[in-house]
Amino acid sequence: MPVAKSLATLRDDETIRDHFGLTATAADLYTKVLSLPQLSAQDRETASLGLSTAYIERSKIKEAREVLNTIPYSPAKALREGMLAVLDDNFTAALQWTEKINPNQLVPQDVAWLHALRGFIASHQGDTLKLNQSILDANQSVVSEIQKQRIEILNYRSLIMAGKIDDTVIANLREKVKLSVDTPNAFAYQRSLALALARQNLKSEAATILLSSAQRSPTEQAEADLLAGLILGIETADGRKALMHVAKNPAATSLRLTALRALVAAAAEAKPSETQSVANEIYDFLMQQNEGQNQFVCPRDPAVLDAIHLARAQLMLIAGNREKARQAASDLIKDVPASPLAREATRTLALVAWGDGSFRLASSLLDTLAEGKVGIPRDILRTVSADCLFLAGDYALAEKAYAAIQNETEGVDLAISAFHQRILSLLQTANDNKTWSQVADIIQQSQKSNKIPAERIWIAVWCLVEDIRKANQPDTAGQVLERLNPLLSDLPVDYSLRFSWQRALIALAKHDTENTLKIADGISQQLNQLPANASAELKENAPALRGHIALLKARTTLGTQ
Predict the structure, then answer these.
(1) Average of pLDDT values for 208-222?
(2) pTM of the predicted model, to two decimals?
(3) Which domain holds residue 105?
(4) Is 559 part of a structural domain of the chain?
(5) How far is residue 174's CA from residue 168's CA, in Å, rounded to a whole number?
(6) How many angstroms separate the CA atoms of 151 and 333, rounded?
(7) Per the domain annotation, does 104 fall within a domain?
(8) What is the mean predicted confidence (pLDDT) over 41-66?
C-alpha cells in the first residue's frame, strides 16, 4: 500500500512531524510503521528513533528508553540518550553522551537538538557563556519554527523535572522568598521555589506561588503562568487555563508562541475519550471575542497571528473537523503569506486533502512543499506526492513521477520503492503488449543500472508475468518470462519455486500437458530436497505446497483449469 510505504521511507523526525504536525500523531504513525511486516532494519531503526523522540518531547521517559533499547548504537541514538538523561536528572550521563556525538554525523534537525541539549547541560552547570552560545547555535540550526518551539517546551519541562531537591533547599528558598518581597529578585526566588516544589511533586503549592497576585511585570507574569501550566500539567483544565493566560498576554511574544504550541500538544496528548473535547475547548478560546467588541480574547496581533491560525488548524485536525482545519490553514496563507509557518499550513492542507480522499489536490500541495526542499527531503515529499497520484488512479502521471524519483534521487531506499511503484503504476494503465513490453524494458534497464537489488528485480518480473497470465495471455506470459530469464540467475530456492510454479501455470493455460507435468515433478523434487539454508517459512509450508502440486497434476491429467 503506497501510504504505508511512504511512512516507512520517511527518513527523520522533522520530516514526519513537519508533514503530520504533532508529536502525538507522529508517535502514532511511527508505531504503525514499526508494525509493518518485512520492515527493513534501516527503516525499523529510523522509525524507532522517531518514536523515541516523540516520547521524549512528551516526557515519557520509560517508553522512550524501551524503544531506544531495541536499536544499535548510533550518534542519533546517543543524542536521544542524552536528552533522556537530562529529563532523568542525570547530567553527568547527559554530558558523557554529548561528548560521543560528532555533529557531522547527524541529520540537520538533530544538530539543533544537540545544541539544545548542550544548552540544557550548560544551564545546569551555571555556565552562562556556554549556555548563550548553545542557544545561539540551536536557533541558527533549527529547520523550522515548529522545531524551535518544541525545543523551548522541552527546555521548560526539563526545568520542572530535573534536579534533586531536599527539604533544606526548600526551606532556604522559602526564607529567600519572604526576604525578597518588593525587591527586583522577588520573582526569581518565587520561580526557584516553585520549581523546587514541583520536583518534589508538590505541584499545587508550586502553582499557587506562581499564580499568586504578587507584583510582577507582565513578562514575569507570562513566564509564571507558563511554568504553572506545565507544572499542573497540560492534561488538566487548570494547567490549560494557565497556558491560555500566557497565550493572551501581549507582553511576551515568545512565551505566547510557546504557550500556543503547548495548548495544541494538550489536545494531541489527551486521552482518546477527551481528545475532541480538549481540542474544541482550546479552539473556542482562540475564537472567543470580547463581549460587545470586535476583538479576540486572545489578541491576534501580527507577531502571533500566523501561530494562532496554525494552532486552530492543528486543533481541528485533531478534533476530526477537516473543514475548519482547512479554513484555518487557508486563513494563515491568506493573512500572513510570508510567514515561516506558511509551509506548516500547506502541510495541513495536504493532510486534510488526503483525509478527504482528494488525492490529486494533496499531490499538488505536496509538490508545492517539495519546491522548498532539496536532496532527500525533497524526494520524500515527491514520493508521497506520487503516492497520492497512484491513490487517485492517475497511474500514467504517477509512473512519470516515480520514474523521475528513481532516476534522480540519491536515496537508495527511495529509488527502490519508486521502481516498485513505477512497475505497479504501469501495470494498472493497460493490459496490452505495448505496456507489457515497456515494463520489461524498464526492468532490464533498472537491472543494468545496478541501483536496484536483485530481489526487487525478481519481484518486478513476477508481477509483470503474473499480470500477463491473469489477462489470459499465456503465450505472451511465456515469451516475456523467457525474455527476462537472464535476470533470474542464482535464484534462492523460494524464488526458484515461485517461478517454476508460474511456468507450470502458463503451461497449463496453454494446454501443454507434458510440460506442465514435467515442471510439477521438478517442483516436487525441489520440495523433497530443500537445502539446509531454506527459510523456516518454506520448510513449514512444504507439505501444503506438495498438496498444491498434487492438485495441479490432477487438474492437468483431467484436462481442466
Answers:
(1) 87
(2) 0.70
(3) 1-163
(4) no
(5) 10
(6) 25
(7) yes
(8) 83
